[in-house]
């Protein structure tokens, strides 16, 4: 979606924009607001992220990245938990007015952040990730109806995302609307069904906002460029899930009241972490 100049200047979405975004997530499983973060903020975030990634690879690369262990084997995709510190905890990241205006309508007033992380496609990947939703069945094999939206992923790409640098591939328009038990181990296998279904690569300019239902099938694709393709990644949840985010008390005390509410389930009073592999 293109955002009007007035909306960009006021940081307030028009009612028609909110309604369209909400309905797109309900029907297609995702929405994109293109290029809404200021260029200077994107540059600041990108340079800080590249420094954090370099620190991580220098310290842990041989064990995690070079050996390509586990889910990342051959894909060169890395999920990195970020420190809750500037510039990553900037208000335009953790409580962007555009995102919250939409999420308010979908999750109600009491949702919270349950993931503060990143997802990066590094050069040299040999294959795509398996097709997957981010969360499994809420009730195992018991629930045979589709459940309401309870968790939304929020991504900010820090570089322009295009065909050559590992864009996310998604299966929109229904994979987030399956009965709950379909997301469990006894449901249909996305890897078997996906090749017969419509998919698309998500191309978007740096500083865009992508909001998607965690249940929508997707996968990372290989990065054929010479530069990393980083995404900031948060999850907003209607019910209590993970509390892995460590926030120093002084940092928490300095947040807005809205941000305090969003992070109330996390580890308040703990030191900010170093960049850590998911």
Automatic annotation (TrEMBL):
Name assigned to this protein: Phytanoyl-CoA dioxygenase family protein
Organism: Paenibacillus artemisiicola
InterPro entries attached to this UniProt entry: Fungal_Metabolite_Diox (IPR051961), Phytyl_CoA_dOase-like (IPR008775)
Pfam family, one: PhyH
Keyword Cytoplasm: no
Keyword annotations from UniProtKB, A to Z: Dioxygenase, Oxidoreductase
Example of a GO MF term: dioxygenase activity
Domain of life: Bacteria
